[in-house]
Amino acid sequence: MAYYVILSTLTDEGRKTIKENPKRILEVNKELEKMGVKVVQQYAVLGPYDFVNIVEAPDNTTIMKMSVEFGARGSVQLLTLAALPVADFIKKIK
Question: Which residues contact 89 (CB under 8 A, 6 or more apart)?
Fold first, then answer.
């Protein structure tokens, strides 16, 4: 499994949805799992992004499909970064 950092920003529509139904966040996490993406950690943050998620997925294709699906809904904008644990990084650069 590969790790990814997903930085998300809610659109006006997304903020309205979360305000009316905050538990929608947890429903989205269940949708992610059905797509093969496991949420490892999730944070609501202040600043230019609304959420930071650390996720695991089998490959870039799974993440790409998730990104297209959620982006097409119009409620969130995503910035996804592939992540490598530091120990693995060190092994690979030796």
Answer: none
Q: In whole angstroms, give the CA distance from residue 8 to residue 15.
A: 12
d(CA 29, CA 89): 28
| Domain count within the chain | 1
Domain interval for residue 83: 2-93
Tell how strand 76-83 and strand 2-10 pair up: antiparallel
What spatial distance separates the first Cα and last Cα of the chain, rounded to whole Å?
22
Query: Each residue of 24-77: pLDDT tens digit?
Result: 999 999 999 999 999 999 999 999 999 999 999 999 999 999 999 999 999 999
At 44, which CATH number? Answer: 3.30.70.920
Q: What residue spans of 35-75 are helical by DSSP H?
A: 60-72
CB distance 88 to 23 below 8 Å = no
